[in-house]
Amino acid sequence: MAKGWYERSELPQSLNSALANVQRTVAAAANAYGSAKVENANLVQGVSKTTTANKAIGSALTACIEVLEQSWLDRSRISGKQSQEDLDQSDLNTLMSFTALKHIRDVLEGTATEFDPATLPAPIVKPTAPSSEVAKVEQVPQQSSIQQPPSYKPDAIRDVPPKNGPSLPMSLPEYARYGRQMILPDFGLPGQLRLRASKVLVVGAGGLGCPAIQYLAAAGVGQISILDHDVVEPSNLARQILHSDATVGQPKANSAADAARRINPYITAIPLVEAISAHNARQHMRGQDLVLDCTDNPLTRYLISDAAVLEGVQVVSGAAQGYDGQLVVLHKRIKAEFAAPKARGDGEARGPCYRCLFPQAPRPDEVTNCEDGGVLGGVTGLVGTMQALEAVKILARIGEDTPPMLTLLSPLTGMPFRCVKIRPRRVASCRACGDPAQVAEPMIRDLESEDYVSFCGLTPTPAEKEGPRTQAAAMQPALIVDVRPEIEFGIAKLDGSINVPIQTLLRNPAQAWKRIHEAQPAAGVKEVLVVCKKGNDSRVAVRELLRVKAEGEAAPVDPLQEAKGARGEVRPVKISDLVGGLRAYSRERDPGFPVY
Ligand SMILES: [Zn+2]
What we know:
Oxidized Rhodanese, domain 1; binds zinc ion; Rossmann fold; alpha/beta; 11% strand; 15 strands; 3 domains; single chain
């Protein structure tokens, strides 16, 4: 903090010329103000002259601030203060008063859009002994990790007025805690107070949610609600950095909320242990200033976007898959000039929602999530952190106004970061955020009557189409066909199993069956057991193999009913898949089999 201020003392302008500047600008302000009063009878001229007068007063204020700053810095130097550690509470109050004065100046000069009473100078208070501040932090009551109802009370510390001065907008330790970001240009005390008053909903406390929550909490976002129904598993720990071995088995929402409070006891973290659904999405978003979508499947992305549009909330949406990531702000408040021509003049200008960007859901076979497709911790870390940064920009109102952009992260390429402008809102066709007068289809008004499952092509297969299934506990000797990707087969496999990756199998099921059929005699067993990681892909595989049978594509001799045994005789074949996959196998048959 001190460095920037001491550098100001290197300005060539002497105190004398600063004082002369005060004399000149105050005189000009007095003239302009007098002139504005005389002309007030004419409204247009009066407004114009008042603006001129305000700017003149602003200039006078600038001149006064410079004198005060220089005097203060001179005194600090004389008393030997060279680093931040040398500053006492009185110095800190002086710095904050300068910030407030500059904000008043900006309002007068028209460069700040609003006046925030919280920027009024704080009274000078006596320095507080550091030990008492530490003690105060330690007295913060620990929140229990149970799920909190919506009427959750904020941390006690935020209700207690600071002891040293009733008009201080924050407690003294908070001034010290947030000092580095508060002295940034355009951030200041107003930016910090906006963050402190903000309420944010983070959906998903996984790879993206953890880094996002971490930086939101540290920056002092006042209330962070964390919605997640999952529990912490060992396979989360390589990237979901708020969880630990000690919280394996606990709800992720609780684990993340506890971690957020450890990072910053001056914020409120609310764990919500439930899955987001059409039933609860709007309720959880109501009253929030911002939503962070940290989930990893298309269905929840559409649901979160639709609910946010209905509640008028912006969504900072992150995605990470494999080595790649992306970031976009949905339903973003934008300047009218960035809006689609057709959208101008129909109320507040907004960027596109998720449906505007993706009117059709991807087919399920085009989608993989982190669990099935893999993901690198650094990638989720970067995207989650970028989400937090974007959230802080929006909440503290810093940074440039830009048209809606998509940020793409591809760390393995020569251009790891790219930013592309995205299409404007589909005013004439989007069922969520379009103009009801122009959209032909019925608008989305009630989430519970929307069929998200069918829209995303996730309709469950009717039971009668399923192939036979085998429980891990009832496994018999069989030829084991492992349909996981080759790279996973290389991590751990069952003895004697063969690898036919699901993608290969789906591309040419008949060819896949031929390979299985040829391996059968060598295995010398009657049954074929298809396995995968969790028991989903293996069901699809068995279904496809049965379809091959029905179409008679596999071989002249029906391979699913008959196969040649090791001695050449024809034997019946049973084909089934392992319920729960290799995870169930590890749990129920062989705890020594690695789970990843
Ligand atoms: Zn839309």
